[in-house]
Amino acid sequence: MNSTPARITKAVIPVAGLGTRFLPATKATPKEMLPVVDKPAIQYVVEEAVSAGMSDVLMVTGRNKRPLEDHFDRNYELEETLRRKGDNDKLERACAPTDLGDIHYVRQGDPLGLGHAVLCAAPHVGHEPFAVLLGDDLIDPRDPLLSRMTEIRAQYGGSVVALMEVDPGQIHLYGCAAVERTADGDTVRITDLIEKPAPGEAPSNYAVIGRYVLDPEIFDVLRGTEPGRGGEIQLTDALRELSTGTTGGPVHGVVFSGRRYDTGDRAEYLRATVRLACERKDLGPEFRSWLHAFVAADTGGRPDIAAGPGLLRPAA
Ligand code: UTP
Q1: Count of C-beta atoms within a 10 Å radius of residue 191
Q2: Is 48 a member of any domain?
Q3: What is the per-residue pLDDT across 2-12, written as a single tens digit (0 to 9) for each?
Q4: Does residue 19 line the site of ligand 1, with CB under 6 A?
Q5: Which of 15, 90, 122, 299 could form a disulfide with 135 if both were Cys (CB 3.0 to 4.6 A apart)?
Q6: Residue 304 sits in the same domain as residue 243
Q7: Is the shortest distance between the CB of 138 and ligand 1 below 6 Å?
């Protein structure tokens, strides 16, 4: 049983990737700043960390950090203009990112991989467990995941990753876990991890998604982790060592079955935008009826053919 406190207050959000799948949009802007409806993806992620009690947020940034810093900083001129106009609704929206709390920044320098980005957080994190949230991976706030992961860390110690069952044909796009069952229905023990396995070499269809609760031992392992797949220092490789080695383990996986949107992928980014727009109280009703008409015109009056189940229905 682990002796360190269950409460995890530090969250690390790596946002230093090149975001090449989104070029040219990401040439001068981090992909995490792309809006999903009217809020940059990164703001959803910071809100998730804060609502799980992680008020100390460190972003690992790269060459285009200015837009991120500006987004979470005060904009006095804008705020003053809105205050003078008495436009409280817009003022509230402008201030919301700043009011989330203190956000710290560290530069990664060269984007040498996710594992290297996490290692850049070591001086800030110190010797305590911490969470990592990928800045382009959105978890629907109605399906809380991080709090469950911290519970599992308190129960078993070591590190905890979020897993999702994916179509076996898609597993080569993810880190993949070999697992053993535990007494908790939604939790497995990880016995091995492979980053983006070649077809036929995946030990399961459990994919690692962008939420981690990590033991600080990971830093020592990362310091010795050689570049792996794609020439990058892979977080998956360091976790593999924790899962199979003698220190810093065990590694457990919480199997997530809620709503998740990978906004780093263009098609999924579009789906996330449409879905969240449909569910919005202010925009949803009008947008849904436009979407119905659009899909009906596109499918000869059978929106059910193209839209898939549930997309065009109002949120429950
Ligand atoms: P991705 O694997 O999505 O890479 O990174 P990427 O470079 O951002 O995107 P593409 O594939 O070129 O389009 C997963 C997460 O890890 C961060 C990214 O910002 C993203 O949140 N990351 C990745 C870093 O912070 N540093 C790195 O060196 C690599």
Answers
A1: 15
A2: yes
A3: 445 558 999 99
A4: yes
A5: 15
A6: no
A7: no
